[in-house]
Design a protein that fits this description.
Layout: H1 11-18, E1 31-36, H2 40-43, H3 62-75, E2 80-85, H4 98-101, H5 104-107, E3 142-146, H6 157-163, E4 168-173, H7 176-189, E5 193-201, H8 210-219, E6 220-223, H9 227-234, H10 260-270, E7 275-280, E8 283-288, H11 291-300, H12 312-316, H13 332-341, H14 354-370, H15 375-392, H16 402-416, H17 424-427, H18 442-449, H19 451-470, H20 478-492, H21 500-531, H22 533-547, H23 562-574, E9 584-585, E10 590-592, E11 595-597, E12 602-605, H24 607-611, H25 655-672, E13 673-676, E14 692-693, E15 699-700, E16 706-709, H26 712-719
Parallel strand pairs: 1-2, 1-4, 2-3, 4-5, 5-6, 8-12
Antiparallel strand pairs: 7-8, 9-12, 10-11, 13-16, 14-15
Bound molecules: protoporphyrin IX containing FE.
Family: Belongs to the isochorismatase family. Belongs to the cytochrome P450 family.
Organism: Ophiostoma piceae (strain UAMH 11346) (Sap stain fungus)
Keywords: Heme, Iron, Metal-binding, Oxidoreductase
């Protein structure tokens, strides 16, 4: 916003600006118009206080200027506040020292008990609208009756503004040196930004006393009357609150590169809002900080929030090359992919994978029993083996299988290219054309270097599946099923709904979306059980009671093991793998709780913050599965965490499959092994907190753990399992 105050207008102001020790604050995100004393006492010609014939000659133009501002503010949904001086005691006792300073005749113009009462009140056609209008979803006008110059002194204006989430006041009114100056300085002291309108106030710049100008230069943005109605009118609703951005860069430098969710959680508290707004280079995003806001927008208004942003960084990784549902924009292709993938992972369909899931879980535990130091690889192999078999019918034979290497490389490429849609190329797509040796292009450099890994994971298993089909080798898996339909249609001359790229992409989606997520959750089990021996012992007791020690647990046992489910829930709560969810995007403009969410806005869900909200979870940083038990059972009755698998029409399709994988390995792990910190040479535990990576998925970096078989019988059961 350009200042309308020129250096030539007032040298002291020019000097204050040019020495750069102070600068005007400018606009925030939620302005309100405040009109100070534009009412009969100052603007009726017979009033003893009339300013209509003032020496600066602007008196007559003020009401018209204010009327145009009021109209713009109302059309834009900005609150309008009328602050008028009003005395209510017949003897002007409520006027304090004014009574001694100003004659009773003059003060009577503001006194509602004045015998004539002809000067009290608003001007015709320029008065508050306090009734709720059907066609206005914003608050009605606010009327503040004040006794002294400042609209804040002795009134509840600050409280009302906070309630309305207002952060910027556009001042217009009768007397620049009195009401406006006092109110503007109080506003600044209370944390509101001031926009000071030159031609809707009584005095010209040249009339301003030096003290007003200097104070104003520090706190207030001077603007011309011409621009403000356009700004007020454009703000149809207020954008959600958020920290102020920087010139041009917006919030780009304000968002931490690592663990941004913690900073977002702080801002949410600071701005008392569960919806925060940010903008950089024209890219707009909001962060939802509560379950309620996430459900309200992403579930209940799912039709409007089923889009995804354009994931430029993932395009650079060539993920657009084979359409991957997770990153597809809303549209027919995305709907086709969901239609074809979702049924394959319904509760009833995933039963067909259970035999293989159990087999892979026991193979994993056997492998850990044989080589405890390679436990991390064994878990990775477990997760890969399940999804690769479902998608391409491939058997992962042994820990050195090349499939594990391919999956790990792809997971590495995706996870290290950063949180989805958060890099500089996502925020400012033109930067993808800049040379990658520039220091801030590190992530693009990384993505291009790792493209081959994504190409390998989408291409290698698919080529193998096609070759097998050509050789009439049929396996029960997604790729073979779809290729068979494709080939039959092609032979009959029937048009195929899915082309080859679609089949390749959909099959790869299962593999890409289901591998690292499952493996990381199992690694988190290891971490939390190792760190929390009491929880581990309680889980072991439960398994021993329900299953006994003479056999291994089965699928039928799982519903009878509620404490193991609490461990799963607590693991979800402690560390959601995507702390900010996978972003959705708004297809159309929307208004939520009076906040304007423009079309195209990217929507993050701060799952981490929801799961660590102290109002919901006591001691949220502590792993305590009992917290979900009712009070009668010794718990706190806290709710299960929601959101780890997303929301609305883009919710994860693999949840049941993933939970089956995680529960079958957890129950067998607890039944056969005890986990602990590594022991030192004297046999003492060596507690530690591992390092974490928050760049893409939130996960602990590799850490050591000690696994010991619980008994000779457990060892025998594991060894004879296959
Ligand atoms: C612990 C395991 C898993 C977690 C925590 C997880 C989490 C998520 C999350 C947060 C989303 C985004 C949802 C949204 O945007 O609202 C998602 C999407 C998705 N997940 Fe999972 N997931 C897991 C396992 C799996 C598995 C095993 C599969 C295998 C089929 C899978 C397939 C998908 C797909 C295809 C999508 C994209 C849905 C869409 O964009 O329409 N996930 N998952």
């Amino acid at each position: 916003m350009a200042s309308a105050l020129l250096a030539s207008d007032y040298p002291a102001y020019a000097e204050s600006i040019s020495n750069k020790t102070q600068a005007p604050l400018g606009w925030g995100v939620r302005p309100a118009l405040i009109i100070l004393d534009v009412a009969k006492p100052y603007f009726s010609s017979s009033s003893p206080q009339s300013l209509l014939q003032s020496s600066c000659g602007t008196g007559e133009t003020i009401p018209a200027a204010v009327a145009s501002l009021v109209a713009s503010a109302r059309s834009g949904g900005c609150p309008v506040i009328w602050a008028n001086t009003l005395f209510t005691n017949a003897n002007l006792r409520d006027a304090g020292l004014w009574k001694q300073k100003v004659s009773a005749k003059v003060l009577g113009a503001f006194n509602e008990k004045d015998s004539e009462r002809q000067h009290v009140g608003f001007l015709e056609g320029l008065a508050p609208e306090t009734a709720v209008q059907e066609n206005r979803s914003v608050v009605p006008d606010l009327v503040i009756n004040k006794k002294f110059a400042s609209a804040f002194f002795g009134t509840n204006l600050a409280t009302q503004l906070q309630f309305l989430n207002v952060d910027t006041l556009v001042f217009c009114g009768a007397r620049t040196g009195g009401e406006i100056r006092q109110s503007a300085l109080d506003a600044q002291g209370l944390g509101f930004r001031g926009i000071f309108l030159l031609r809707s106030t009584m005095m010209s710049v040249h009339d301003l006393p030096p003290a007003v100008l200097l104070a104003a230069a520090a706190s207030i943005c001077f603007v011309s009357l011409y621009l403000v109605p356009r700004i007020l009118g454009k703000r149809k609703y207020h954008l959600p609150p958020g920290p102020p951005g920087e010139f041009v860069l917006g919030h780009y430098r304000k968002i931490p590169f690592v663990a941004a969710f913690k900073q977002y959680a702080k801002w949410s508290r600071e701005y008392s809002s569960d919806v925060l707004y940010f903008e950089t280079f024209g890219t707009k995003w909001i962060v939802l900080d509560s379950l309620k806001a996430s459900v309200d927008l992403l579930d209940k208004r799912g039709a409007n929030y089923s889009d995804r942003p354009k994931f430029i960084m993932f395009e650079e990784l060539r993920m657009g090359w084979a359409p991957t549902l997770t990153w597809l924009r809303w549209g027919p292709r995305m709907q086709r992919h969901r239609k074809i993938l979702q049924p394959a992972f319904s509760k009833s369909q995933v039963r067909q994978y259970q035999d293989n899931q159990k087999k892979q879980a026991l193979l994993c535990l056997k492998s850990i029993a044989d080589d405890p130091n390679s436990w991390n690889n064994a878990i990775r192999r477990f997760a890969v083996a399940i999804v690769l078999n479902i998608s391409f019918g491939v058997d992962v034979d042994g820990p050195d299988s090349p499939w594990i290497k391919i999956a790990d490389d792809a997971a590495e490429a995706i996870s290290n290219s950063g949180a989805p849609a958060s890099s500089i190329v996502d925020r400012f797509p033109a930067t993808r054309h800049l040379p990658t040796w520039l220091p801030f292009m590190e992530r693009l450099r990384y993505a291009r270097k790792w493209r081959w890994a994504i190409e390998a994971i989408t291409n290698v298993p698919f080529s193998q599946a096609k070759q097998e089909m050509d050789q009439k080798i049929i396996r029960k898996c997604f790729a073979h099923d779809r290729l068979a339909i494709y080939n039959t249609n092609a032979e009959k001359g029937v048009e195929n709904e899915f082309n080859m790229d679609d089949i390749r992409g959909a099959a790869a989606t299962i593999y890409i979306a289901g591998n690292d997520t499952t493996a990381t959750t199992v690694i988190l089990f290891v971490l939390y059980l190792m760190q929390n021996p009491r929880a581990q012992q309680r889980a072991q007791k439960e398994v021993d009671r329900v299953v006994g020690t003479k056999r291994l647990p089965t699928w039928e046992d799982i519903p009878n093991l509620p404490y193991l489910n609490l461990i799963l829930q607590e693991t979800y709560r402690m560390n959601p793998l995507s702390p900010l969810g996978i972003p959705h995007a708004a297809l159309n403009d929307d208004v939520y709780n009076g906040m304007y969410i423009p079309e195209g806005t990217i929507v993050y869900q701060n799952i981490w913050s929801m799961h660590h909200n102290e109002d919901v979870y006591s001691d949220p940083m502590i792993f305590r599965p009992e917290r979900y038990l009712s009070k009668a059972e010794g718990g706190n009755g806290e709710p299960f965490p929601v959101g780890n698998f997303g929301f609305g029409r883009r919710v994860c399709i693999g949840r049941t499959l993933a939970e089956n994988s995680m529960m079958i390995i957890l129950v067998n792990l607890v039944a056969t092994m005890t986990l602990d910190y590594p022991l030192d040479k004297d046999g003492h535990r060596t507690p530690f907190e591992p390092d974490w990576s928050f760049r893409g998925q939130a996960h602990p970096l590799p850490f050591p753990a000690s696994f010991s078989l619980r008994s000779a019988k457990a060892e025998e059961l594991l060894r004879n399992a296959f």
